[in-house]
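task queued by scheduler; priority normal; single chain, no ligands, no partner chains; default sampling; output format set to structure tokens
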Amino acid sequence: MLEAGNNSELPAIPAKRYFTIGEVSDLCAVKPHVLRYWEQEFPMLKPVKRRGNRRYYQRKEVLLIRQIRHLLYEQGYTISGARAQLGGQSSAAESTSTVVQQDDQQVIQSMRKELEDLLKLLK
């Protein structure tokens, strides 16, 4: 996701299950109204809503917000560009895993062929 160097100015994320919007605002250096706006713009950002429509963010969402902040504020992406970048990461990860699976299958086939040849030599 983000390298440690990109988060050096942000405080460490405490070991908690849920964070309020105020806590996330402090952890990510983003105002609460910006977080609410980003919820509309980034479909993958879905905090849990409980009594009185209060938002509770999980650690993965705090990390996602930090990544969005990095893309927008430090990398200079637009909202749509950041959305595409985040969406592209998941599709790039899927295509990478497909390539890895194909490579694994080739390695397995090669090993199997070598083992069959070795078995023939032993017989």
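post-processing summary
- The longest helix spans residues 79-122.
- Residues 1-5 have pLDDT under 50 and may be disordered.
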